[in-house]
Structure formats: structure tokens, C-alpha cells
Write a structure and sequence with these properties.
Rossmann fold, 203 residues, globular, alpha/beta
């Protein structure tokens, strides 16, 4: 759920007392690494058709002729996606990584790529990438209703994705960007503030 959803629910249920509660997350400060990574990453539960569709689009429309190292990582990929991911020498797939392996991939990537084809609320993998990874490349749909747009590079369509990927792949991720994410985390995804708000509502 996002703040945008609260407006929707107020309208369809004709209810005034609908409020937004940010998700509780596993970080109290960003875990991003400065410097330059060596590959681009898309991650998610690959058994979910939406995620498989995104991974396939990236392979067929973005990295098909863009020879930048690209890793897809996630749970239970189909044989079709595995085959497609290993079709080119610069693309690969990590199947069923452990939690630690996934964390390492997100931190070591130069660019975390997180597009979405559906407006379905804030995604945990998006938060994970923003607060633990370097550069984040998303489409507009992924940022709708969230305050995270300033921490991301936003593109719509394969051509725009390619252009930004080329610009970012050798661009160091710097302390200034980590401070921006620290500010976003403190003001919008602060677990203590969220807990206090929830307790206030319950009482």
C-alpha cells in the first residue's frame, strides 16, 4: 500500500478514517556501498509471472544488444527464463540465492534495476534496493505513491533504460547519495515512528 492508495480507498468505501502506515523494514540506516560495482542486477521472486515478465523484457529488449554484465537473481525461475538468461555471454541467472547471497548481490551491483509493469503498491524489493544498493534504475510506475523518486533514476521504455544504464555503469556512487537515502529513511520509513503511530491508532 502507498499513500496514493489511501485516497483510492477513501473514495471507493466513502470512508474518512483511512490512513497510511509505512511498512516496517529491516534497516535503521542505509547499507549502501560507495564506489563502483561490476554488474547490473534485477531480483525478485521469479515464480511470480509479473517478475518473470519483467526479467524477460530486460533480457529481450534492454540487454539483448547492450553488452553490460547483467545478473537476474531470485526464487524458482522457469526453465524458459534460465535458458534465455544464459543465451548471451554477458547475462546470467542466479537461482534460489540464500538471503546472504542476495544481500551481497544487491550491495555489489553497480545498478539495481527495478521496473514494474503494474501499479500495485510499494514493493519490498524496491526498498531493499534503495537502502542497500547503489544506483537504482526504475520506471515511473514503480515510484508512484512513494517518496523514493529522488533516490532513483527514472526511465520509461527500453531506449531510455539503455541510455541511463550506459551513463551510470561507470559512475561512482557517492556519499551525497547515501545521505539523501538516509534522509528518506529517517522521514518516511522510520520503524520507531511507524510503531508509535500504530500504537496510537490501536489505543
Amino acid at each position: 500500500m502507498t499513500e496514493k492508495d489511501t485516497v483510492h480507498y477513501r473514495q471507493i468505501f466513502h470512508a474518512k478514517n483511512v490512513a497510511y502506515l509505512p511498512p516496517f523494514i529491516g534497516w535503521d540506516h542505509p547499507h549502501c556501498q560507495e564506489g563502483i560495482g561490476t554488474f547490473c542486477l534485477y531480483h525478485g521472486n521469479l515464480s511470480v509471472k509479473e517478475n518473470e515478465k519483467v526479467a524477460t523484457w530486460l533480457l529481450q529488449e534492454v540487454f539483448v544488444d547492450l553488452e553490460i554484465p547483467f545478473v537476474i537473481a531470485g526464487k524458482d525461475p522457469t526453465a524458459k527464463l534460465e535458458k534465455l538468461a544464459h543465451w548471451k555471454n554477458h547475462t546470467c541467472l542466479v537461482s534460489n540465492p540464500t538471503e546472504k547471497e542476495m544481500y551481497d548481490l544487491i550491495q555489489k551491483a553497480q545498478i539495481n534495476i527495478i521496473p514494474s509493469f503494474t501499479d500495485s503498491g510499494i514493493k519490498i524489493k524496491f526498498l531493499y534496493s534503495v537502502f542497500c544498493g547503489r544506483h537504482c534504475l526504475v520506471n515511473e510506475t514503480m515510484t508512484l505513491g512513494t517518496p523514493l523518486g529522488p533516490a532513483c533514476h527514472i526511465a520509461n521504455g527500453a531506449t531510455a533504460f539503455k541510455s541511463i544504464l550506459v551513463q551510470l555503469f561507470r559512475k561512482p556512487f557517492e556519499e551525497e547519495e547515501i545521505r539523501l537515502r538516509e534522509n528518506l529513511l529517517h522521514h518516511h520509513y522510520n520503524n520507531q515512528q511507524t510503531a508509535r503511530r500504530l500504537i496510537q491508532w490501536l489505543w
